[in-house]
Amino acid sequence: MRHLLDTRTLTRADALRILDVAEDMADTQQREVKKLPTLRGKTVVNLFFEDSTRTRISFEAAAKRLSADVINFSAKGSSVSKGESLQDTAQTLQAMGADAVVIRHGASGAPRTLATSGWITAGVVNAGDGTHEHPTQALLDAFTIRKRRFGADSRGQGLDGVKVTIVGDVLHSRVARSNVWLLTTLGARVTLVAPPTLVPQDVSAWPVEIVYDLDDAIAAEPDALMMLRIQLERMNAAYFPTEREYSRRWGLDARRLEALPPASIVMHPGPMNRGLEISAEAADSARSTVLEQVANGVSVRMAALYLLLAGAERDTDTTDASGK
Ligand code: CP
């Protein structure tokens, strides 16, 4: 794997390979000594032009557990404020020895530009670009659903027939887009629930069903209910109901939580707006996988970095992903 830019172009075989390697990585995280020597001598640069808690720290933990060196770059406090371009910033960091660049950027398409412009030779991982995609979030979500549905060792298993309902601010959500492409590639049936003004205009071309009433969607008994963060900072001209109205009609409260089938899981990519799209009861309930998603994110990002930086060597080597 040269880059990881989106899930829309990821084949089922490639997606399963990442999820299966993530299972190997998760196994290594149960050991007393979690650190593997696999990426010793490699350097991973976290190039973040937007704020992040989970994704940036998770990539840092993943790289360090594979023994890579990590350089963290945040646009805040950098020479970006003096007008330095993406090209010059990336080339400056590559000159310091980057083998992989993990980039989060407010502009949709920035990771692809970095990967295809010829500015740098490092592998590029998209850590979220504008409203476009967030592929490792979708991979960790798929990993979480697969583990819950099929148990600890679900290697080789897709998500055929699994019902996933994604609720909320689909219009601004790169998480929703990456999940739609990945989950349907893996065979899941995806339903979107949103106020009509927060549904993207091109949604008729997506392989999903659209429902506007959350209670109807819950009555259809989803296996996983994924609540999205309301992105007030990106709302701009989009019409948004009052927070009270949104919460009443599209929020997951205690009553709706109770109406879900007993085996359904509740997901959220974080950060959560408690009391808006999800109540504290739902976020902290036994069926919430919010923190499990975070933990699984480290294994999935270890897999992505491993396949990016050691995958080609692995193909001609007998050493497996777990270092055995
Ligand atoms: N889910 C997610 O991308 O969270 P952060 O913005 O904290 O990285």
TrEMBL record:
Pathway named in the protein's UniProt entry: Pyrimidine metabolism; UMP biosynthesis via de novo pathway; (S)-dihydroorotate from bicarbonate: step 2/3
GO cellular component: cytosol
Enzyme Commission code: 2.1.3.2
GO BP terms: 'de novo' pyrimidine nucleobase biosynthetic process; 'de novo' UMP biosynthetic process; amino acid metabolic process
Pfam families cross-referenced by the UniProt entry: OTCace, OTCace_N
Record Gene3D superfamilies: Aspartate/ornithine carbamoyltransferase
Catalysed reaction, written as an equation: carbamoyl phosphate + L-aspartate = N-carbamoyl-L-aspartate + phosphate + H(+)
Keyword entries, A-Z: Pyrimidine biosynthesis, Transferase
InterPro entries per UniProt: Asp/Orn_carbamoyltranf_P-bd, Asp/Orn_carbamoylTrfase, Asp/Orn_carbamoylTrfase_sf, Asp_carbamoyltransf, Asp_carbamoyltransf_Asp/Orn-bd
Entry keyword Repeat: no
Binding site for L-aspartate: 82, 174, 229
Oligomer status and interactors: Heterododecamer (2C3:3R2) of six catalytic PyrB chains organized as two trimers (C3), and six regulatory PyrI chains organized as three dimers (R2).
HAMAP family: Asp_carb_tr
NCBIfam families tied to this protein: asp_carb_tr, PRK00856.1
Function: Catalyzes the condensation of carbamoyl phosphate and aspartate to form carbamoyl aspartate and inorganic phosphate, the committed step in the de novo pyrimidine nucleotide biosynthesis pathway.
Protein's recorded name: Aspartate carbamoyltransferase
Upper taxonomic lineage: Bacteria, Bacillati, Actinomycetota, Actinomycetes, Micrococcales
Gene expressing this chain: pyrB
